[in-house]
Amino acid sequence: MTTIPKPEFCEQDWSEMKTTEGGRICGQCSKVIVDFSRMKWAEIEQIQEDHNNSLCGMYSQKQLDNWGREVPASSCSKFAAATALLISLTTSTQVSGQTTAKPDTVSSAIIKGKITGVNMNGEVDTLGFAKIFLKGTSFEAVADEQGNYQIDLTQYIDTIANPIILFSMEGFNSTELKLNKASKGQLMFDPQLHKITYESLTNVNSRPIRFYVKKRTPWQRIKRRFNRWFEGKG
C-alpha cells in the first residue's frame, strides 16, 4: 500500500461547514471533508487508498503528530492494560500448580541494515537518525548517526497479518518493506530513499492535493462568538 503524504493545512472553519454523511461540506470548494478524527490509522490508510489519496479530512492533533502510524495509547489506556496484566499474572500464579508450561515456539524476527539516501545529483550517502515505523502500530525506532539500524519485531510477526515497515526521513520519499509470518530469524535490508525534488512537489498530475482542517478549541469558539456578536452578526 502506498504511503500517504501528510496533508497541507487549510484555513477553512470546520464548525461552519454544513454537515453531511461521513463529514462536512467545505463552503469554499464544495468538497466533502471526511471526519477521520476517530479512526484508526489502518482505516484512514485504506479509505485514502480507495480514493487515490485525494480526500481532504479533519484529523486530531495526535493523528497529525503521529502521521503514518497508529496514535500511541494514552497513559490511562496503559494503566488499564497494566492493571489487567497484573490481574492476569496474579490469577496465573494461583493456578500454576494445575498447569503445565508450554515451550516457547516463537522464533525471533530481527531486521537490520543501513539506511542511505540519494540526492538530486544521484550521489548516495548515509541517512543518520532516519525513522523506522511498523505501520498500524505505535512501534518506532531511529537509526544511528551512520544510518545503521536494528529492530526486533518478534512480538509482532505472528500477531499482525503482513507487517509493513516504513523507513522515513524528512526531505526524502519514504520506502517500505513488506513482511509475512515466514519472515523470521535475522533479516538484512538496506533501504535507499530518494530526495524529494521540486518537480515532484509542483507537478499537479503527479500527486492529488489534500488538505486538513482543525476543530476550534472551546476558547476559540467563545472568542469567535463574541467577535460575531460585536460585529452585529449574532
Any key phrases for this structure?
alpha/beta; elongated; 234 residues; 6 helices; Immunoglobulin-like; single chain; four-stranded antiparallel sheet
Could you give the topology of this structure?
Elements lengths: L7 E2 L8 E3 L2 E3 L6 E4 L5 H10 L6 E2 L2 H5 L9 H20 L14 E6 L1 E3 L5 E3 L4 E4 L5 E3 L5 E5 L1 H4 L6 E5 L6 E4 L6 E4 L3 E3 L3 H5 L8 E3 L4 H13 L4
Parallel strand pairs: 1-16, 4-5, 5-16, 6-14, 7-15
Antiparallel strand pairs: 2-3, 3-4, 6-11, 7-8, 9-10, 9-12, 12-13
What would you say this structure looks like, in words?
The protein is an alpha/beta fold and 234 residues long. The protein has two domains: 8-68 and 210-230, no CATH class; 106-196, Carboxypeptidase-like, regulatory domain (Immunoglobulin-like, Sandwich). 24% of the residues lie in helices and 24% in strands. It has six helices and 16 strands. The strands form four sheets. It has a six-stranded mixed β-sheet with strand order 1-16-5-4-3-2, with no helix packed on it. The longest helix has 20 residues, at 75-94. The chain is elongated and about 70 Å long. The chain starts with 7 loop residues before the first strand and ends with a helix.
Going across the biggest sheet, name each strand in turn. 1-16-5-4-3-2
How many domains is the backbone divided into? 2
CATH structural architecture of the largest domain: Sandwich
Oligomer: single chain
Q: What would CATH call the class of the largest domain?
A: Mainly Beta
Please give the radius of gyration in angstroms.
Answer: 23 Å
CATH topology of the largest domain: Immunoglobulin-like
Helices and strands, in order, run as EEEEHEHHEEEEEEHEEEEHEH
> Largest sheet, if any?
6 strands, mixed
- Rounded mean pLDDT is 77
Low-confidence spans: pLDDT under 50, at least 5 residues? 90-105, 200-209
Shape call? elongated
Structural class: alpha/beta
- How far is it from the N-terminal to the C-terminal residue, by CA? 48 Å
> Fraction of residues in helices?
10-25%
Under CATH, the homologous superfamily of the largest domain reads Carboxypeptidase-like, regulatory domain
Please state roughly what percent of the residues sit in beta strands, choosing from under 5%, 5-15%, 15-25%, 25-35%, 35-45% or over 45%.
15-25%
**How many beta-strand runs?**
16
Number of helices: 6
